Amino acid sequence: MTGWSDDGDPRAGDAHEAFVRLEREVGLLLRRARAISTRLAGELHPDLDGAAYGLLALLQDSGPLRASDLVTRLGLDKSTVSRQVAHLVDLGLVDRAADPVDGRAQVLTPSAEGSARLSRIREVRRARWESDLGDWPPADVAQLAELLARLNQLGEAREATGS
């Protein structure tokens, strides 16, 4: 029994079970995501760990960011982000530049090499998703993406308020 009625709404008596299942499934997804990020980081560069992969991906997706923005968005401590950024810069995967708004600060962007490597890995990942979910109706894939986006927005809002 899934705890869901035919119209997709949780039944009143099964609402708690729905959240228990959600916690379990999201936990599994996160554990797999960490393992995948670690593997992908190694493909990006043999000296990287999973956190660095996520940091580089965020920089590519969000454009130039300050290190403090990365701390907020990733929910990591400042020293971890600082070490990861320094390592990515040393490997030539991230560039630092003066912030055009505040010349005292620096903004970070993927280097041309970092961007190219990340794009190749993401294309392989996208193809894997397409293969794995190829028998799903496109509307289901779109709905999953939308629901995950909503969940991520909640997380980002929570991180921004520090709660």
UniProtKB/TrEMBL annotation:
Q: CDD domains given for it?
A: HTH_ARSR
PROSITE patterns, alphabetized: HTH_MARR_1, HTH_MARR_2
The protein's matches in SUPFAM superfamilies, at most eight in alphabetical order, are given as:
Winged helix' DNA-binding domain
Query: InterPro entries per the record?
Result: ArsR-like_HTH, HTH_MarR-typ, MarR/SlyA-like, Tscrpt_reg_MarR-type_CS, WH-like_DNA-bd_sf, WH_DNA-bd_sf
Q: Per its UniProt record, what SMART domains does this chain match?
A: HTH_MARR
The record's keywords, sorted A to Z, are: DNA-binding, Transcription, Transcription regulation
Q: Does the keyword Transcription regulation apply?
A: yes
What GO molecular functions are on record for this protein?
A: DNA binding; DNA-binding transcription factor activity
BP GO terms, sorted: response to stress
Q: Which Pfam families match?
A: MarR_2 (PF12802)
Q: Enumerate the spans annotated as HTH marR-type domain.
A: 19-153
Indicate what this protein is called per its UniProt record: DNA-binding MarR family transcriptional regulator
